[in-house]
Amino acid sequence: MNQIAVRIDLDGGRVHIGAMSFDISPLLEQWDYQPGQLVVRKFPGRDGVEKIQLRVDLGLLQMNAQGRPDGKHPHGRESLLEYYQAQMEKFQKERRGDEQSYRLTPEDCGRLQQEALQYHHRYICLFQLEEFDAVLRDTDRNLKVFDFVQQHAGSEEMAWALQQFRPQLLMMRIRARGAIALKANRYDQVVQLVDSGLEELRQFYREHERTDLMEQSGEIQSLEAWLQEIQSKRPLTPRQRLESALNEAVKNEDYEKAAQVRDALRHLKGEPG
């Protein structure tokens, strides 16, 4: 049977939920999984909250577009990060400003890492939806988690369990900021963003004495490939177009045209004729 009658005991009472189907096959049949592609959609939920769905091979992931992706409020806070920050502030007041002594347990770090994974899934989806400002919102949030754990983890090993994912997060931030600049045709800014981002990634590996990982970093390789793609598609400046035309004219021995292009170049540079 596809329909199941559900009843739940609450304080000795019995609450009838009603018949419901747990089978999502009809939904999945209308939305094919595409190997090698990120298939995402966004829609308003029945509760009035925007939802994001990610199609995966065995089904789908659904998350809220705002707030904590699973919609929960742990300990009455927007997220566990806010909860642990409040705990640290309380500790600081009790110890008269001794913030450095506050330590996260392995369980605390594990919970924060699991929560950060929720935001990771969402900003990946948001990037696919080209909502780059929201990508920056969620990556900024996860950076705060990484910094908080780095500062308060009980050991370097506990901190590295989360820090090892920082390069991927930094790459997504660079891609999102670069995509925003590309939409405005600010190619110089994109190149500068990628160059500085690559240096930030390399510095991360140097600081953690993991230069061995730098050589095989997928994030660095991805950004370098993207930079080459941007450079190849970058519109030529008026000077570059004239210089290209001059080279072509000389190559074809069209000296009359070459002379005209040289005149145009001197005019562009403000040189005397």
State the main characteristics.
alpha+beta; 3-stranded antiparallel beta sheet; single chain; 2 domains; disordered N terminus; two-stranded antiparallel ribbon; 11 helices; 273 residues
Short structural summary:
The chain is α+β, with helices and mostly antiparallel strands and about 270 residues long.
Gyration radius from CA atoms, angstroms: 27 Å
Structural class: alpha+beta
Query: Helix proportion of residues, in percent?
Result: 55-70%
Low-confidence stretches: 1-11
What's the domain count? 2
The total count of strands amounts to 5
> What order do the SSEs take from the amino end to the carboxyl end, as H and E?
EEHEEEHHHHHHHHHH
Strands across the major sheet, in which order? 3-4-5
* Global geometry: extended
Largest sheet: 3 strands, antiparallel
- Strand fraction equals 5-15%
SSE inventory with pairings:
Blueprint: E1 3-10, E2 13-21, H1 25-29, E3 39-44, E4 50-56, E5 59-64, H2 80-94, H3 106-128, H4 132-152, H5 156-163, H6 166-183, H7 187-207, H8 211-214, H9 218-233, H10 238-251, H11 255-269
Antiparallel strand pairs: 1-2, 3-4, 4-5
